[in-house]
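Example record used in the benchmark description.
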Amino acid sequence: MSQSKKKFHYAWIILIGVALIVGLNKAGITTLGGLFLIPITKELGIGMGSLSLYFSIASIATMITLPIAGKVIAKYDVRVVLIIAMLLQGGGFAAFGLMNSVWGWYIFCIPMSVGSVFLTQIVGPVLVNNWFKKHNGLALGIISATGGIIGAILQPAAGNLIADQGWRNTYFILAGVVTIIVIPIIILTIRFAPKDKGLLPLGAEETPTEAHETTEVISGVSFANAKKSSAFVALFLFFFFITSISSFSQHFAAFAMDNGFTIQFAGNALGIMQIGLLVGAISFGILADKFGSKNTAIFAMLLGMVPVLMFLFNPTNPVLFMIGVGIFGFIIPSLSTLTPLLTSALFGKKDYAQIYSTAAIGLAIAGIVALPVYGYMFELTGSYFSSLIVLLVLFAANILLLIWAFAGRKKLVAAGLMEEEVITIKK
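Model output (structure tokens):
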């Protein structure tokens, strides 16, 4: 490999492209749904639970798509797949602006969610796993941090747009902007694997074989063995609970307005949450590389209890509300940064894409259950108090699941199920 390639690896170009794709779609489309809930329910006379039910339908579409997505993105040209996904997500989101009935959200959230699976859940972990042998945590942290930077700009802007231009036009504007920026990024930067450019992953040690070949040793548990293990069950449940926790962020705008704050304040609060996400994304990536994904995840769960307690005891103080939202935003990257790293730490890289995409069904199931449950709990009780209690329980449960998962990994290793495979790369 040439000295120039050693100094600057194409993996960093991949990281920049993926970070922008994931960040724009998450911050500009996926995480903004909650900001529209109050304006839509007031204008169209739809109940909060009924409207937020579209999050469940979206999660069902996500759950069905996830196990297929890992295979599709590995089999077909990744750029074509991602462009189609962008058209589905952007088109579905824009269509919401044309709707007058809740059924519109129920229908168009399906193509939006199918596209989102590839753009916000699969492309980051899979391409980072393909291109980075080292600095995985940092790379995933940069992806989340980029979303935080973009979100800190777009989310307050979205709140102001809804106030000034109305929620319908805001759907159109955001969908158009994200689609126009993302498609050229996909075309210009994205490649599926290092072998597509005659490279090894960043940090891989070369073992010379012939003049134009090198080898890489990949170790891990096969999907067939992984899916039957207690470690997989624990990881699946961890995905379910951490997504249920993160899903509450979709209700922050409604939570803020329920406590007497304006929609502009709610948009600014979401911006503060994105700043917290930015700091957390970098922090969790570095902490995971230094202390391991397990210890970092346990730390994240303990820290996450702090803002929930703040919201329980003093939800109407604007300063404390902003601080609490910022801390909550800080722990959200534990979903996008730590779950891929936990998967790799538990099962290795052998069948990573299939194991991760299957375990990630827990993310989708959580969306089916958690998002509308928070909405219906609000309708029934008139507040988010009971939802906050649920969040505390979920944080505690996740700590126990992490301990169980890594105990299950030890059993896999003891049983000799951590296999090795030698891959030959032609240069």
